[in-house]
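Postdoc handover notes: sequence design on the structure in folder B. Input tokens:
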């Protein structure tokens, strides 16, 4: 259902929407205005809305003359299923993903498209965040965690942004996973990634669907994407602790370094023995100099271990 031309467009903008009737007309207007002169389609997936989202989209598209592909799901299936449905129906060579809440600026789409046409397999809109402090802290925390745990994304300013434009071949090769940050595997797997700055503001209408339980789910997803490096390290640390306690009366401060080899045995594919020993030395030095509590020292050592990956 929808208003579309018979020719395949250059760009498909996939918009998952759930009860976004207030935002959809403004979204379509801003996208249509930003993409003047560019062959595009908007693939709107109404994820079981009951507030007239589909009707608002059709009325706005007719008024603007905007190319709209409207897909109505009978019940709410969640964002990932809505995105997958949109990808299946999209006809463009390039696919952009845009949330219906207008927190991300549609005006960045032309520049993102130019970067993709210039050879980037994936273009990320890195956030210039103007939302309230709480939202900025959550986003910053997610970004820092990803960079600590996944070395492949450290070169990027905002690897967990949810505003991306990708070559359709990449999405065919790497289908979306049911993740809190569904585009992160694409960021890791893309051969050439480009970034541009985009403004992010708080939505004007509707309410955020953020749930605190997503934080734990996100951390588990990072663990899976990093091949459970952190979990394997922690198991090694639990083995190393009694070894260190047994050896300490005999060899003193050498004991934690010898015991660290138990940690390295479980993560040897990702880091050299020198990296493990340097992380231990840094944490031990901080403990002795600043008299830090053991849990804080252990946390600092874990962070150092992650930073040593792919360096040593």
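Designed sequence:
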């Amino acid at each position: 259902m929808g208003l579309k031309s018979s020719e395949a467009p250059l760009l498909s903008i996939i918009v998952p929407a759930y009860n976004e009737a207030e935002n959809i007309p403004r979204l379509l207007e801003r996208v249509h205005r930003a993409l003047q002169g560019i062959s595009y389609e908007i693939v709107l997936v109404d994820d079981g809305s009951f507030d007239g989202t589909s009707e608002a989209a059709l009325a706005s598209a007719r008024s603007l003359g905007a190319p709209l592909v409207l897909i109505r799901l009978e019940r709410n299936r969640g964002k990932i299923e809505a995105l997958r449905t949109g990808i299946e129906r999209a006809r463009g060579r390039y696919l952009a993903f845009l949330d219906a809440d207008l927190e991300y600026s549609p005006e960045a789409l032309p520049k993102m498209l130019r970067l993709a046409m210039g050879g980037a397999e994936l273009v990320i809109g890195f956030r210039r965040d103007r939302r309230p402090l709480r939202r900025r802290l959550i986003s910053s925390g997610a970004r820092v965690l990803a960079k600590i745990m996944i070395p492949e994304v450290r070169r990027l300013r905002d690897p967990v942004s949810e505003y991306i434009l990708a070559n359709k071949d990449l999405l065919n090769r790497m289908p979306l996973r049911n993740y809190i940050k569904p585009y992160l595997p694409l960021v890791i797997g893309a051969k050439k990634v480009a970034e541009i700055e985009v403004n992010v503001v708080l939505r004007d209408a509707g309410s955020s669907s953020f749930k605190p339980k997503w934080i734990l789910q996100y951390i588990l997803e990072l663990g899976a994407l990093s091949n459970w490096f952190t979990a394997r390290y922690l198991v090694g640390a639990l083995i190393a602790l009694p070894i260190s306690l047994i050896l300490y009366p005999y060899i003193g401060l050498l004991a934690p370094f010898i015991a660290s080899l138990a940690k390295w045995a479980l993560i040897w594919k990702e880091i050299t023995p020198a990296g493990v020993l340097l992380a231990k030395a840094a944490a031990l030095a901080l403990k002795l100099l600043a008299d830090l509590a053991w849990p804080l020292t252990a946390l600092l050592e874990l962070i150092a271990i992650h930073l040593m990956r792919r360096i040593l």
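Context for whoever picks this up: The chain has two domains: 2-225, 229-308. Don't rerun without checking with the PI first.
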